[in-house]
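Anyone opening a protein record will find just a pair of labelled lines. The record below illustrates this layout.
***
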Amino acid sequence: MSRDQFIKMRGAWDTRHWIKVPGLSHAADALQLEQCLTELDGVQRVQIVPDRRRIRVTYDQTQTDYQTILERLAAIGFPASESWWSARKATWFQYLDRNARDNAQAPEPPCCSNPKGISAGKVRKK
């Protein structure tokens, strides 16, 4: 699926990431990974490429996050790669998920044609 197709089909808070899983070696592992990850709230799709030892997880950032997915992988015996690059990506993806969750829960900002929120709480002086 191309990036444009992904954007058209998914919600505003959906994202997808490739995760390197060194312990992934055959189809039986793939089935176990897919089953365990799809049980997580918010995980919509798990694409597995056993010969490259990688999985691609599509999930809703308001329901789960990258760290939860990594913890689930470790809990079932398939920890993600701990290389320098994987650690940097994990930190960045977790930041993006936290930021998306905060933005999704933020109150609606005022609009130029309806500035109720701008002066909320202020008392007008007469």
In short: The helical segments are 3-9, 27-38, 66-75, 84-105. The chain has a mean pLDDT of 83. DSSP finds four helices and three strands in the chain. The chain has one domain: 3-105.
